[in-house]
Amino acid sequence: MEEPRADREAVAAGKGKIMTPSFGKLRMKYFQATEIIVALTLTCSGMHAQVSKVQTFPLSGVQDLDARNVKAEPAEYKGRKAVRIMLPVPPPMPAAGPRPAPVPHFTFLRGVDFADGTIEVDVAAKMIGTAPPGLSRSPCFIGIAFRARSDANHYELFYLRPENSLSSDQVRRNHSVQYMSMPDFDFTKLRWRWPSVYEAYADLEPEAWIRMKIEVAGRQAKLYVNSAPRPVLVVDGLKGEDLAGGVGLWPSGGQENYFSNVRITHAKPQAVQNGGDPSGTWDIKYGIGPFTGSLKLHRDGATVSGTASGLLGTEAPVEVDGGVRRGTDVPVTGTWRNGYLEIAFHGALPGTDPGGVTASLAGWVDGNSAKGRLTLSGQRQDDAAWTATRRE
Questions:
Q1: pTM, 2 dp
Q2: How far, in Å, are 80, 294, 306, 334, 341 from residue 345 at the CA level?
Q3: Which of 140, 198, 242, 326 could lock 125 by a disulfide, CB 3.0 to 4.6 Å apart?
Q4: Distance CA 221, CA 235 (A)
Q5: What tens digit of pLDDT does each residue of 306-323 get?
Q6: Which residues of the chain fall short of a pLDDT of 50?
């Protein structure tokens, strides 16, 4: 039988004494244990908050908005409280002389600094008036910008064009959802350089509420609409330099733009940094057929030079004993901007003339890895995703 400890006391007299813990000391142990539990809970909660902080903006008023060159006001649209954002009527263009510099039409959400995570929002766009006789009505544009600078001129953007979803022209249908990175990669440049890569079809209803969800992780972003389980557009290699910034409501002119129920969930940012240097030797997978090879690159400021092997050469590659004999190395030229690389080289593929094909590679260098888009033009057209690893 356990011997009574010194911190126990008798609570009844007689032959047999009932021993019980001292109340004062028991209370002290209780509070000490409670303090430990509370401290651990607060520590874990703080760690979780740093990784998955959530910000919500019902947008039933304009107190959380920083409007730039737009009119924002509380409104109700199809039974839902929201904010309505309108662009001013543009001034007439001068008959002669330089055109005025464009101004941003943007609405920041106050107190948001977003790097990685999820942005969810309900949007709707309603056209004003009707199209002129003989012309079709221009589709609405409405979207969400992220990693935006305070000047409202630099940002990543996903936007919707609901009317295109109903078009009988498949090319126009494929422009239902789009991505841009302003100001250097607007939709014209992206569509010209990489057709169909940064836009896609989605089933959208014009002038209806549409739920957008944007997932951002490092240099990749995915767009979901209307609670679909899979993304309608994936951008692997965001074009903007900024890895964090504001979140903005992006309206368009000639329409009423409605936004409601914003929810931003912040995640721990991925370990990517700008400024990656391409200098060195790289093993590359071109993403087209079996073609692999190497890049030997040198950077001098913003200029990149070197050689490439494995895809194009002065002679076309041929199959030899189950392998691929590749032509000689070809010279590479290109540019570099804060880790973003654009290079090109010329050569041949089977069935083409020497120098008849141009390979253009664009993408980010992140430490000892790099990836991006490859485009073939000339006598052979193709598009693929390339990856490369720096040799030790």
A1: 0.81
A2: 55, 13, 10, 9, 14
A3: 140
A4: 5
A5: 999 888 865 555 554 454
A6: 1-50, 320-321, 323-325
